Amino acid sequence: MNKRGFTLVELIVVIGIISLLSSIVLASLGNARAKARDARRLVDMHNIRTALELYKSKYGVYPGEDTVAGSTCGGYDAGYKDASDPGFIPGLVADGIFGKTPGDPLSDGCAEEGGGDHVYKYEYKENGMPALGCPKPFYILGIKNMETITGAHPSSPGFPECTGYSLAAFEWAIGSYE
Prior knowledge:
The chain is α+β, with helices and mostly antiparallel strands. It has helices spanning 8-59, 90-94, and strands at residues 72-73, 76-79, 119-125, 138-144, 172-177.
């Protein structure tokens, strides 16, 4: 009786092919997740921007930053993904526009505070910055370190009216005067 089975070489080849295919699938899945997080970031920016305009239409000014609770990140108010966030743009929460202002889906804190580099940032300049060509009160809202793009995102509106204020630290940013 002649038993036929797989040789060791055949088994190694099959295992190698399966490993190669699974690594390709996992790499594609990781890229899809990164794209999904970037899409969420852009939706969050749209929602926060709309909320800022609602707040301004109600009070005549944009909300201030949360600089008291320790959430500053390089001088900006910062939004993180979890409950450790002490409050991101607290005026939007206090006014009932958001239950909790959205934070970056990956951020575990600001790099300056020992966290990661993915973060939403907001800054409100109540007196403008006349020395930089920004004479009126304004805000800056941005995403630092998107995953699938390097440099400025094509949909980033920027802040062309305020010529001296650099938004180079952001992949997506917007600014607006009051």
